[in-house]
Structures are given as structure tokens and as C-alpha cells.
Amino acid sequence: MNIRDADLHDLPQLSTLFDLYRQFYAKESDVKAAEHFLKARIQHNESEIYVAEDDDKTLLGFTQLYPLFSSTRMQRYWLLNDLFVHADHRGKGAALQLIGRAKQLCRDTNACGMYLETGKNNIAGNNLYLKADMNLYDAVNFYEWEVEK
Description:
Helix content is 34%, strand content 23%. By secondary structure, it is of the alpha+beta class. The radius of gyration is 15 Å and the shape is globular.
């Protein structure tokens, strides 16, 4: 298994994985919109996307991180916004390797760390993040505001 930066050549496979990821979070399937979204992130260098691929160059999964800054720490901070491994390839270490690459990004950019959010009912994800030496921080309330459509 190889973990590497995603590029525009990955869009057909990556868009399909991204669409499956969105469906996991109860969003309607739209592979074309997924491709457009990912293409823009890659072309404008707005996120870091890493892919896990097998020896046949089949993409098994991906992670996407967005740059942020911590005012209190006065350092870059990364949001691990997306992590997905295709159901056929889970349990083989791809997710841990993708998280490992994300940790290396933090080191390479002198960031203070990264954070993520997942549902309390995402048992597999919650177990994975603990296994990846991430700390569960539940001492704060999380609030969100959305623009009405």
C-alpha cells in the first residue's frame, strides 16, 4: 500500500470514493459535483488530500485536511475533515496510514496539531482515532450555524 498526494489524475477514482464518503453522512449521491469540488481544492491548493493505493494503482481510501490557525497557540492547525476507506478495503491499515501521513503534514508545516469531529455513533471511527493516539476532547460544547438555503 502506498500513501501519496492526490493529483488531478486521481479525480475519477477519488470522486467515487468522495461520493461514497458523503453518502455515509446521508448526503445524496452526486459524483459529478464531487469531482468538481475536489478538482477545485486541488487546483487552488486549498486542502491537502492524500490517497491510499494498492499495487495496481486502485485507490483504497483518502483523507483531506484544511489549514487553520490557532490564535491561542499562535500556530497553524489542521482540520482533518475527511477520512474514508472503501468498505472492501477496511481493516487492512489504510486509515491508520492515512492518519500517519496527516500527522507528518503537521510536523512538516510546524503545526501545533490537527483535530477532527465525528459522530458519537461512529463506533468504528471513534475506535480508530483512539488507536491512532488521538485524544478525545469532550470538555467543550460544539456549536454550528448554517446559512439558510
